[in-house]
Model the fold of this input.
Amino acid sequence: KKYHPLWMSIHFTHPEELTPETAQACERLADAGIPLGSQTVLLSGINDNLEAIKSLVHGLLKIRVKPYYLYQCDPIPGSGHVRTSVEKGLEIINGLRGHTTGYAIPTYVIDAPGGGGKIPLLPDYITGRDGDDLLLTNYKGGEYRYPDPGGAIGFDNYRFKGGPARKQVPMP
Done:
């Protein structure tokens, strides 16, 4: 091939944006071999509820767009009236998980201030450890044991990428 693959990210905010015209445009791009992903910003009073996001992600899949990212609204000047809590975003992701296909679940991220990059946020499904068993809770609240001999995940002092947390990161 002469050219490397092209991927396109499209910003959809609400299911009402999924009009016949946008569906036709996405169809033309997808038919041309361009993989499509959606980046959606979580906005208070606009799409900060499970019904709106679920309708949006299902509609996106129907027009061949992968729900890629759900962004926490950046704390920039003038955005306070549309920002919602991180807890609300996690509730939405948890409400999707187990109730729809995994293809419809975007990665919920914060674009960390100060150049920290995108940090994924997930509901906490690891609840602890009992000896060699990892203690898990599923999307319904069911509790499960998973054999994990010799593992450290689940201990209070464990952190990925380097074991115990070693330093405090100052906030800007």
Observations:
- Residues 124-172 form one domain.
